[in-house]
Write a structure and sequence with these properties.
- The chain is an all-alpha fold.
- The protein is 75% helix and 0% strand.
- Helix 4 packs parallel to helix 7, helix 4 crosses helix 9 and helix 9 crosses helix 11.
- The N and C termini lie close together (6 Å).
């Protein structure tokens, strides 16, 4: 396993280098440059425009600019964003990448969890009215036009019912006299969620040692204790209202993405589980007289998880693909909206930085998927 991981890391480094080269060449080959947005300004003389291009490094040959950028990128310097001048690209990424990751990771986890539960129930109780109704609704949501559906969700839940904010990251009125900035609160929220999830995972692992009848009550009690602890912390922190404002803005885009994406997981789980149910070990489990719930969850559903886990890991890697559309609809200031705005004004360093962020996620996800396969399927062994 260790040799396999080292080999895959080496392959990822080589692939990442080729990816960087291709991205830089394609982005740089587009006509015009960032200085073109100033050409219509009558106050700039030709000399000043030439000085602007020189200060941005746009007058150098492509190969020279690429080699310089590559040397800086190895040291973690992705350049200065033209449209966010003088902020470095890495600072913009560090500010907005967590917003995209939290939004799409939460929506992806929820959609895959709901889809997996629905898929295994549909495969187990095949042929009923519930299967047909759920499949039709799921496929309808999965094939819906996302921009239209997002606008309809905003119109119904935000504009008509007033349950959620129409968009943005925070409410300026709420934050008018805030003692801290939004990034501080958001990072605290991420840390709270990470700490709570870690405690729940450890508690779930410990609860496996209990008797089968005690596991579910113990896990429920553990969940309630962690939930009460997190809520109590934010209440006594004095900045809980600001965390609630950010969370309130998150609900509608997460709900929209979950409704659109869960059907794909549901159908994948259903098809995978139908194949699993025909295996000999399922018949052997039935012959032993095991309960139906045990056969469904521990024998059929666990082996049907392999393609679902792969799809989940790869879906996390490409969060930026859907982020451009979703973040634009909900005005969510993440990497997707940043990439779109940078591309419009030809902010090459920012565009390349956003694509580098996507490439790192994709390559890391492929490595994680390969390793997870070895743990989930004991028949797989890597030398």
């Amino acid at each position: 396993m260790r040799r396999f991981i080292v080999r895959r890391i080496g392959q990822n480094i080589l692939t990442f280098f080729l990816f960087l080269t291709l991205v830089y060449v394609l982005v740089d080959a587009q006509p015009g440059d960032f200085a073109d947005i100033y050409l219509a300004d009558p106050r700039l003389t030709p000399t000043q425009r030439a000085q602007l291009r020189e200060s941005l490094g746009l007058d150098r040959p492509v190969l020279e600019r690429y080699l310089q950028w590559l040397r800086n990128a190895v040291r973690g310097d992705l350049g200065v964003s033209f449209s966010n001048y003088p902020r470095p690209v890495i600072d913009v990424i560090l500010e907005r990448a967590p917003r995209t990751i939290v939004l799409f990771l939460t929506a992806t986890i929820m959609s895959y969890y709901v889809g997996f539960l629905a898929g295994k129930v549909l495969a187990w109780k095949r042929g009923g009215f519930m299967e047909y109704a759920t499949t039709i609704v799921g496929v309808g949501l999965y094939t819906v036009f996302l921009p239209w559906f997002g606008l309809m969700m905003i119109w119904f839940f935000a504009f008509t019912l007033g349950l959620f904010p129409i968009g943005k990251f925070v409410d300026p009125v709420v934050w008018r006299r805030a003692p801290v900035d939004a990034n501080f609160v958001f990072h605290r929220m991420i840390f709270s969620a990470f700490l709570g999830s870690t405690i729940l995972l450890l508690w779930t692992s410990f609860s496996r040692r209990l008797n089968p009848g005690q596991r579910r009550p113990a896990r429920l009690i553990g969940f309630l204790v962690v939930l009460v602890g997190i809520v109590g912390y934010w209440i006594v922190s004095g900045i809980g209202r600001y965390a609630w404002d950010i969370l309130h803005h998150l609900v509608l885009p997460i709900l929209t993405l979950t409704l659109v994406n869960f059907a794909g997981t549901m159908l994948l789980t259903r098809n995978s589980m139908l194949e699993t149910l025909r295996e000999d070990y399922i018949m052997a489990a039935r012959a032993k007289g095991l309960p139906d719930k045990t056969i469904r969850d521990k024998h059929a559903a666990r082996n049907a998880m392999l393609p679902v886990v792969t799809a989940f890991v790869l879906a996390v890697a490409f969060v930026l693909d859907g982020g451009v559309i979703t973040e634009t609809i909900f005005s969510w200031p993440g990497m997707g909206l940043t990439l779109l705005e940078a591309a419009v004004v030809q902010d090459i360093p920012m565009v390349i930085g956003a694509l580098v962020f996507t490439g790192i996620l994709a390559l890391t996800a492929h490595l994680v998927a390969d390793v997870l396969y070895a743990f989930l399927d004991p028949r797989i062994r890597y030398s």
